[in-house]
Probable magnesium transporter (Triticum turgidum subsp. durum), 174 residues
Amino acid sequence: MVVGEIANFAAYAFAPAILVTPLGALSIIISAVLARIILREKLHIFGVLGCVLCVVGSTTIVLHAPAEREIESVAEVWDLATEPGFLLYAAIVLTAAFVLIFHFVPQYGQTHIMVYIGICSLFGSLSVMSVKALGIALKLTFSGMNQLVYPQTWFFTLVVVACIVTQMNYLNKV
């Protein structure tokens, strides 16, 4: 599992996030097939339908993904992350996550699994941007252009760590 996550992290540095994320959903299919083969679990019609929809959706996204421009520094990613559209998106996501955490978890957390899944998904959507930025920073640093001198690199690192810790916390509660 650790090797898979490291490979997934590396993929964000070398490929567009719009390609990496849906292909990561294919791990659901692999898990379902392996559970059927190794653990002899039954895969009902809705499980098969879900796997088919994952394949169709991933294929559609990959085939119609726009070309990604080459990013030369973490400062460029920072410029994109501080555009009004993304800041509005991040504010909406964080507001929704905090509403779930402080309002819905105390009331419904123990009985409704979707509350925890919603929190994990919301933080996961923010972590993709930061993982992409961190992957680019490491790729450029290893190629000779040190990106560790930029405070933005460390900010993205903190966001990745905060998102991972939050996701792990709420995934364990599921």
Observations:
- The chain is about 80% helix and 0% strand.
